[in-house]
């Protein structure tokens, strides 16, 4: 009998129908009925959480869409909520301010950029400089394809806290550069290699920011400047030629010694 009640409860719960316990106002305190109540509560909680995640996603998507046509400082949380079709009070339940929306959205965009940098190469490379060039080109294509991304991560109106957080993202991009190079060549062991590649990414990032400040996008000329500056910095620490990863007959130290001779 209890199992039958349990099956009925599951069906009623899935249909959104309430269940009353007990007879004539008296609740039967059985373990099975407690399990039924748990199913009801857990189901409602799970559904509420899912709706909350969906509503949060809708708000972020609307903010991203609006940033394609509006300035960063021209939007309010109310504007985003209206576009998302979400009550303003509900929007404030998820985000304290438009700055919180921008912060969350910038994390989402940074993750997309990292994933983009780790995509397999579609053509061969002959040097580590080629790998850097492809990485810069990917960054340019990513930012030029999204006004929201340019405003949040490169634009002059980006909030300082987002700029600071993006420094950590550049460490990740630097590691992506190292990983991509290591697929083709043997990188030398050196102290603070992560820091060196982080600084290299920051140099490219600076060129991107200057171009967005002056032109609104990353121009071809500034793309080339970013490649030259990034490679020039890394060349202070890396030899011009690295041994191939698949047939590293010479060590990196031997290559560097040969270059000095």
N-to-C CA distance: 90 Å
Q: Tell me the count of domains.
A: 2
General form = elongated
- Give helix and strand order, one letter per element, not per position: HHHHHHHHHHH
Query: Mean pLDDT across all residues, rounded?
Result: 83
Low-confidence stretches: 1-10, 17-32, 34-42, 248-256
Structural class by sheet pairing and helices: mainly alpha
Largest sheet: none
Number of strands: 0
Radius of gyration (Å): 27 Å
Provide the fold topology.
Elements: H1 2-14, H2 31-66, H3 77-84, H4 88-94, H5 98-117, H6 128-144, H7 147-154, H8 160-182, H9 193-215, H10 220-234, H11 252-260
Key attributes of the depicted protein:
mainly alpha, 261 residues
Describe what you observe in this structure:
With 261 residues, this protein is an all-alpha fold. The protein has 2 domains: 29-96; 125-260, no CATH class. Helices cover 69% and strands 0% of the residues. The chain has 11 helices and no strands. The radius of gyration is 27 Å and the shape is elongated. The N and C termini lie far apart (90 Å).
In short:
By secondary structure, the protein is an all-alpha fold.
């Amino acid at each position: 009998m209890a199992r039958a009640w349990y099956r009925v409860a599951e069906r009623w719960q899935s249909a959104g129908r309430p269940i009353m316990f007990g007879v004539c106002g008296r609740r039967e305190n059985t373990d099975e009925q407690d399990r039924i109540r748990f199913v009801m509560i857990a189901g409602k909680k799970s559904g509420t959480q899912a709706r909350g995640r969906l509503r949060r996603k809708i708000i972020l998507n609307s903010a991203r869409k609006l940033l394609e046509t509006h300035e960063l400082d021209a939007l309010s949380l109310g504007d985003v909520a209206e576009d998302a079709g979400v009550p303003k009070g509900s929007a404030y339940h998820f985000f304290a301010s438009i700055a919180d929306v921008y912060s969350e959205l910038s994390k989402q965009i940074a993750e997309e950029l990292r994933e983009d940098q780790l995509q397999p190469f579609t053509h061969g490379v002959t040097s580590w400089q080629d790998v850097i060039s492809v990485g810069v080109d990917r960054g340019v294509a990513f930012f030029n394809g999204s006004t929201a991304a340019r405003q949040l991560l490169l634009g002059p109106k980006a909030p300082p806290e987002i700029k600071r957080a993006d420094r950590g993202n550049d460490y990740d991009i630097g590691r992506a550069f190292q990983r991509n190079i290591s697929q083709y060549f043997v990188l030398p062991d050196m102290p603070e290699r992560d820091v060196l590649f982080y600084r290299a990414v920051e140099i490219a990032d600076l060129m991107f920011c200057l171009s967005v400040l002056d032109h609104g996008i990353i121009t071809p000329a500034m793309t080339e400047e970013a490649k030259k500056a990034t490679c020039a910095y890394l060349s202070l620490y890396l030899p011009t030629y690295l041994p191939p990863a698949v047939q590293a007959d010479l060590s990196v130290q031997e290559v560097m010694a040969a270059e000095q001779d």
